[in-house]
């Protein structure tokens, strides 16, 4: 039997490279048509930057001594009313005085520099934190609601159906407004709590349907076998049905949590400084519109891609455990 010849892949790789090159050329042509000047050099400072803390004279007096020590200098001030000299440490290149200069209380002597987190880094952290907390709460809500959806109790089943249809039938933006301006006002909730609550309720409704489908995909024979062995309904669900169902629903749950990270950008409408709101604030001061939005989009892509790879790894681990 003749061996099957391996298919040639390089033409398809070449086609992919041509498509990506065409997209890059299209972007370049578009920016030329609108006469846009790229300012990528401004972007790094919005991740981390060096801030200067001005060191002011604590007392009125005279500069008695300046002792340089590499990048830093120690400045001694002799108080005008006598007393012990006061020392300040500043960076040498920021010195504003020399020996013998009189200074008043509050006059700037120099500055000390230190690294600070920029608005893009802070906004990224807020987005990840809000998404993680709301996703965790939403998973718990979805698990409880999914079980209630399958309950023989009509009250529990009816409440679960009402909650799911209400959340899935209204826009997330409207839910955030209602949760913040109505529920948040009545319960005196912070905007962070209101944003997390709205996102958790939103993702919980979709997670409930995913979990319900996963539970129903398990063969009824396994439940009957567990009950015939003397296991209660709760034990059967906990030890037999749910472990298998969660493995099956991991891919759709992954997609839901990835969507949650992107949907979290809507909390910026209630003044939560997430990644999207940070980007808008930077644009108003830097006028680097395209650079900031491309950077924000790239940060969302990096976070969702890392989460996707993590969930793929978990899925493979669960598959091997079977």
From TrEMBL:
Topological relation to the membrane, as annotated: Multi-pass membrane protein
Report the locations given in the UniProt record.
Answer: Cell inner membrane; Cell membrane
Kinase keyword on record: no
UniProt keyword terms in alphabetical order: Amino-acid transport, Cell membrane, Membrane, Transmembrane, Transmembrane helix, Transport
Q: Which residues cross the membrane?
A: 12-30, 122-148, 160-183, 189-208, 292-314
Q: Domain ABC transmembrane type-1: where?
A: 124-311
Primary location class = membrane
Origin, by domain of life?
Bacteria
Any single biological process term in GO? amino acid transport
Q: Which InterPro entries match?
A: AA_ABC_transptr_permease_3TM, ArtM/GltK/GlnP/TcyL/YhdX-like, MetI-like, MetI-like_sf
- GO CC annotation, single: ATP-binding cassette (ABC) transporter complex
The Gene Ontology terms for molecular function here are: transmembrane transporter activity
Read off the PANTHER family from this record.
GLUTAMINE TRANSPORT SYSTEM PERMEASE PROTEIN GLNP, MEMBRANE COMPONENT OF AMINO ACID ABC TRANSPORTER
Regarding protein family, the annotation reads:
Belongs to the binding-protein-dependent transport system permease family. HisMQ subfamily.
What exactly does this protein do? Part of the binding-protein-dependent transport system for glutamine; probably responsible for the translocation of the substrate across the membrane.
Q: What is this protein called?
A: Putative glutamine transport system permease protein GlnP
What species is given as this protein's source? Candidatus Competibacter denitrificans Run_A_D11
Q: What is the lineage of its organism?
A: Bacteria, Pseudomonadati, Pseudomonadota, Gammaproteobacteria, Candidatus Competibacteraceae
